[in-house]
């Protein structure tokens, strides 16, 4: 998968943990760097390296699935994305619109980033994968199908990819069934609907995953300080200092 090199923020002290964070559609890895800069100023997570991959810039056709509700032409464009998106209006229609080859290519890419960290001596249980929006969807899909036991899985403003096939992609005994998944979602999100996040958490719990789903009142398709504070606390619990 052709992509630009990730943005890497090295650990301040001995490197014992890694966070891999995937941006959303149309963004870049640098878009989330200010949060890490704030943590660095406060000397939070000094043992942690942060990796911000950049999605490839590829053509995309935005398909309006429910034409009667959203009349208009098919839109061709080029942007940064982890898989080809489609304009859908219900959680069930997501499964019909997913770009399975693109999702699997991105999943394999993130698995290669995880493997590279393990090959450098970082325990897989000290690696957290997460993201926002489309990046969060890839992070969750990668995490729950990973052959390695990870330290954590995070999805902000997210949904479950290929949810009608997820049992086919997850191993019989998934490595991360006991790994806490942190999900956050604004209840006023007009792009990744709040109910998609609720249904994702419900479906994962029904399949045995441990999901902490947080609702942020009045939040649209974005992140807010309270959500970032909750993320910080989650990372503190999953990647405690070894000093």
Give me some keywords for this one.
globular; two-stranded antiparallel sheet; alpha/beta
| Tally of individual helices | 7
Helix content: 25-40%
Q: Record the strand order, biggest sheet.
A: 1-3-2-6-7-8-9
Distance between the termini: 38 Å
| Oligomer category | single chain
Q: Mean of residue pLDDT?
A: 86
Secondary structure: number of strands = 9
One letter per element, helices H and strands E, the order comes to: EEHEEEHHEHEHEHEH
* Uncertain parts: 62-75
Structural class: alpha/beta
The main pleated sheet reads as:
7 strands, mixed
Strand coverage percent? 15-25%
Shape: globular
Rg of Cα set: 17 Å
Characterise this structure.
This protein is α/β, with parallel strands linked by helices and 243 residues long. The protein is built from seven helices and nine strands; from the N terminus they run E-E-H-E-E-E-H-H-E-H-E-H-E-H-E-H. It has helices spanning 33-41, 91-97, 100-119, 134-145, 166-169, 194-206, 225-238; strands at residues 7-9, 17-22, 48-52, 57-62, 75-80, 127-132, 152-156, 181-186, 211-216. A seven-stranded mixed β-sheet has the order 1-3-2-6-7-8-9, with helices on both faces. It has a two-stranded antiparallel sheet with strand order 4-5. Helix 1 (33-41) links the parallel strand 2 and strand 3 (48-52). Helix 3 packs across helix 4 (134-145). Mean pLDDT is 86; it is low at 62-75.
């Amino acid at each position: 998968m052709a992509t630009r090199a990730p943005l890497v923020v090295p650990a301040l002290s001995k490197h014992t943990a890694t966070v891999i964070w995937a941006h959303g559609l149309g963004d870049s890895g640098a878009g989330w760097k200010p949060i890490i800069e704030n943590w660095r100023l406060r000397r939070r997570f000094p043992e942690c390296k942060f990796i911000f991959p950049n999605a490839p810039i590829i053509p995309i056709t935005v398909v309006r699935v429910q034409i009667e509700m959203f009349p208009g032409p098919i839109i061709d464009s080029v942007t940064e994305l982890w898989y080809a998106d489609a304009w859908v209006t219900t959680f069930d229609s997501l499964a019909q619109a997913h770009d399975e080859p693109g999702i699997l290519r991105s999943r394999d890419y993130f698995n290669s980033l995880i493997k590279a960290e393990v090959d450098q001596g970082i325990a897989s249980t000290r690696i957290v994968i997460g993201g926002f929006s489309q990046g969060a969807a890839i992070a969750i899909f990668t995490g729950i199908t990973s052959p390695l036991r990870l330290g954590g899985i995070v999805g902000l403003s997210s949904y479950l990819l290929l949810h009608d096939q997820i049992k086919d992609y997850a191993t019989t005994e998934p490595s991360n069934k006991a790994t806490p998944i942190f999900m956050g979602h604004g209840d006023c999100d007009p792009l990744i609907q709040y109910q998609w996040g609720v249904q994702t958490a419900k479906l994962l719990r029904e399949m045995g995953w441990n999901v902490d789903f947080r609702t942020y009142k009045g939040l649209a398709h974005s992140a807010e300080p309270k959500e970032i504070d909750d993320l910080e606390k989650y990372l503190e619990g999953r990647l405690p200092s070894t000093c």
